[in-house]
Amino acid sequence: MLLTEDGWQLNLMPKINKETTLAEVLENPKAGEVLLKHRIPCLSCPFANLEMNHLTLEEISKMYGLNLKSLIADLNEV
Fold first, then answer.
1. Which residues lie closer than 8 Å to 53 by C-beta, 6 or more apart?
2. d(Cα 63, Cα 78) in Å, to the nearest integer?
């Protein structure tokens, strides 16, 4: 954990956006809970492992009719 001189914790996770890949999202251990909350089936899909490094949140949202803005907001909270 990195702290600033005045004791604030630095958040080193880059901000998630529509072009963030599923692999990048899953680097955060808490992100899986958010993805399940939004009913993203990719976590159990065998093809997701093959596409995880290229599949973006925007693409996933379009495929499954998800609210992209809400998904991104929730992921940036964890």
1. 21, 23
2. 24
Task: Compute the radius of gyration of the chain from its Cα atoms.
Answer: 14
Per-residue 3-state assignment (H helix, E strand, C coil) for the chain: CCECCCCCECCCCCCCCCCCEHHHHCCCCCHHHHHHHCCCHHHHCCCHHHHCCCCEHHHHHHHHCCCHHHHHHHHHHC
Q: Choose among 33, 31, 41: nearest CA to 61.
A: 41
- In this model, does residue 68 exceed pLDDT 80? yes
- Tell me which amino acid residue 2 is: L
Task: Specify whether the CB–CB gap between 19 and 53 falls below 8 A.
Answer: no
For the whole prediction, is pTM greater than 0.85? no
